[in-house]
Amino acid sequence: MSRPDSGQAQGSVMDTLGSWGAGVWSYAASSLNSLMGYEELNVVNPESSEAQQGPTGKADKRQEEFTNYKDFIGMDITSLVSLPVWIMEPFTMLQKMAEIMEYNDRLDKALECDDPYVRLAWVVGFTMAPWGAVERAWKPFNPILGETFELELENGVRYLAEQVCHHPPIGAAHAEGNGWSYDIVSAPTTRFNGNSVDVFPLGRSRIRLKKTGEVFSLVPPPSKANNVIIGRVWIDTAGDYSLINTTTGAKCSMYFTPCGWFGSGRYEISGHIITETGKKVIALSGKWNSHLDMVKCDEEGDPIKDAETIRLWECAPKPAGDKYSLTYFARRLNVGKGLSPLASDSRRRPDRAALEGGDHGSAGQEKYALEEVQRAEKREREKKGETWAPRWFRKPADKTVLPNEYSEEEVPMWEFTGEGFNQPKPSAPSDGDCSGKGFFPWQYSDILQRLRPASSGSAS
């Protein structure tokens, strides 16, 4: 399986706009900045020397002008540009990775099935969770190297994620439930097309059912954020979805229909559960923002007359009027009250907490400060000739690439050490809320003290 070609040009209207020169980009910058109350909007390569000189206030002259956004067309901007906090949500990529846990009861349904193909269908239902939340147009924070996020649910499900690489950004996570486990290495890439951004969810997702010994491998379709510069932002997901039972060879193949003119076909998905011998046995249909159904089908893939239709997944109702369009489950992932997670936990990030509280100024300052410490740590490692290693994940001895997976070159392999769930935690804050307090993913504490001696938000 090959990586999407991030260098290919798009035959779109925005390519034509790019050929018009700086005029249209200047207009876009002026319009967007006027709308947001900014006189200037800039983009910066965080690894450049200019990016390490510190903020200079409202209009930061160290950064490239917004009109140079056209220079990024066709490029992967996953970690190339430093974005202002007012286009972000108070959420990190590690938290976003955890949203797949919302409908984990689908895996319990799978464990109850004797029919291996119905069991496969219920696993598909579990994997639909991220699309119920994918229409949020806000960008989550890129995690700091070594940042973590952990989750414990009432039914005993435990989840732990860690940022294992910064350039390129890669997160790894492990979850355990009653009779199943879930592992993911998330290494998404993007392609900036001018007025849209393609998001390729490269990764390695494995779902294990302990009762049957089956291992399932997921490859989801890409998404696209439209109108990121001019117009109202909207999200579409289109392309092939594949979930393979790597133990037996049975698979689910679905197609997410691209949005056509006047919204035709938007959200629609359809496909089949296919046996090891290539026979279609279950038809699947629905909409990726609302539901997915299954029904037994004939060999042509058509539903059998009078066969029962079973709902595999239904998106839960969402809060009305939420500023960031967070689901109820996503809101829960942000709650810090009554919790005392690892010091490296996303909830403790001061920039995320400030944005959640509506303080964009402080959020921007804290975001820059965290990035500054991260850059300083990188320089210190290079100076000392030392390396950085994750705490809770390691390179596996067995590097077997399962069917349906990306190569190791495309998506590096990481495995859970098994030691992260029962580690001693920091003392709970006196007010019982860890949000924005005690964030410490750092390798060198002396750098933090040197750069932020008066900080009470990033270390304690």
Q: What is the annotated CATH architecture? A: Beta Barrel
Number of strands: 22
Overall 3D shape? globular
Which parts are unreliable, with pLDDT below 50 for 5 consecutive residues or more? 1-67, 456-460
CATH class: Mainly Beta
How many discrete domains?
Answer: 1
Can you give a write-up of this model?
The chain starts with 12 loop residues before the first helix and ends in a 9-residue tail after the last helix. The longest helix is centred in the C-terminal third of the chain and has 25 residues, at 360-384. It has helices at 13-19, 22-36, 93-97, 105-111, 116-127, 328-334, 350-356, 360-384, 445-451; strands spanning 42-43, 64-65, 88-92, 139-141, 148-152, 158-165, 170-177, 180-186, 189-192, 196-200, 203-209, 214-219, 223-226, 234-237, 239-245, 251-256, 268-274, 280-287, 291-296, 310-314, 393-394, 415-416. 20% of the residues lie in helices and 25% in strands. By secondary structure, the protein is α+β, with helices and mostly antiparallel strands. It has a single domain (75-421, 438-460), classed as Porin, CATH 2.40.160.120. The protein is built from nine helices and 22 strands. A twelve-stranded antiparallel β-sheet has the order 5-6-7-8-11-12-15-16-17-18-19-20. A four-stranded antiparallel β-sheet has the order 9-10-13-14, with no helix packed on it.
Supply the key terms.
alpha+beta; Porin; 25% strand; disordered N terminus; disordered C terminus; 460 residues
What is the element layout, followed by pairings?
Elements: H1 13-19, H2 22-36, E1 42-43, E2 64-65, E3 88-92, H3 93-97, H4 105-111, H5 116-127, E4 139-141, E5 148-152, E6 158-165, E7 170-177, E8 180-186, E9 189-192, E10 196-200, E11 203-209, E12 214-219, E13 223-226, E14 234-237, E15 239-245, E16 251-256, E17 268-274, E18 280-287, E19 291-296, E20 310-314, H6 328-334, H7 350-356, H8 360-384, E21 393-394, E22 415-416, H9 445-451
Parallel strand pairs: 3-4
Antiparallel strand pairs: 1-2, 5-6, 6-7, 7-8, 8-11, 9-10, 10-13, 11-12, 12-15, 13-14, 15-16, 16-17, 17-18, 18-19, 19-20, 21-22
Helix pairs in contact: 4-5, 7-8
